[in-house]
Amino acid sequence: MADEDIRIERRDTPAETSLTLGEELTVHQVTRVRARFASLAADGPLVVDLGALRRLDTAGAWALSELRRRIEAAGGSVRLENAAPDVEMLLDAVAAATPQPEPKPAARRGLAVRLETIGRAVTRGALFGVGLTGYLGLFLVRLGQVLRHPGRFRLTALVAHCEDVGFRAVPIVAVMAFLIGVVLAFQGAAQLRQFGAEVFVVDLIAISILRELGILLTAIIVAGRTASSFTAAIGSMKMREEIDAMRTLGLDPAAVLFVPRILALILMLPILGLIANLAGLFGGALMSWIELGISPSMFRTRLIEGTDVSHVFVGLVKAPVFAVIIGVVGCHAGMRVQSNAESLGRMTSSAVVTAIFAVILADALFSVFFAEVGL
Predict the structure, then answer these.
(1) Domains, the chain, ordered by start
(2) Average pLDDT of the residues in 250-261
(3) Most C-beta atoms within 10 A of its C-beta, which of 78, 84, 157, 310?
């Protein structure tokens, strides 16, 4: 059978299949030629007669090379006949330049492989922890230098970062805490009503918000909002080689970039935690009034009589520690950004996850510590 457009003649015999190409096999015919080649059976010998071929480019040579590779991979054979010397040279060059897929190594199995995987993961985690500790030490050293030489302190940068991490976060923190107070009051009312102990919902709201949820959820929101901001800002500067330029100008990136950001977090997070406590108590009082009929004056009286000020202390004392964790994680991730946008996105996501996990872990350690000391 023949195709006049691409001029391919095929003859099938019991012993083999013969294929005679026309005068041209170039990029203009390669798509249709490949479609014809794909219809050839791959389970027998194939003879390709190139005697009439006068024009061949790399696209056509690649189509012939692909046909040979497909049939030979299936157990057949391909023989090229009557090819001109220049055609043979082009076919050999294309075949040599075609990349060969590397065989995949066999998957290793066994207890030793699993132990090796666990060991590598533990080592990476330990190195990451060492890196964070190093950045914490770098911040403390630069902070000490600034305290000894106040003239080096960048007050303008501190105020700008305080506005960014503190003032602009007030709405979302207040709304979050208000809704948490509403939920606590509603769920507590539903449970305590069964025992006639509705009045104790005030204690539930006060202790939960003042001691744990107020500062913890505030730190989580700040971690998602600020750690990513620090990483993106410092990482973008690193991508544009601005940090190298700072070093060239004799400026210390740790003193210029880390200290104002982390110090702003240390100053603002306790204030945000206090705002969250007030908003949470307001939300809880409002829902208690609606759901249980506990008036605001009764709520206030029960709050003052049944809640010790130590709960406020326990909650707010965590704020500076959470602030340092969030700031160090964000700055550390920003300095790990490489010179591509993919690395910036990966480090930003990693900073958020790491900061939130570290905050929750620190809160758990604080809870154990305060329980042991009786607070």
Answers:
(1) 2-97 (3.30.750.24), 138-373 (no CATH)
(2) 87
(3) 78
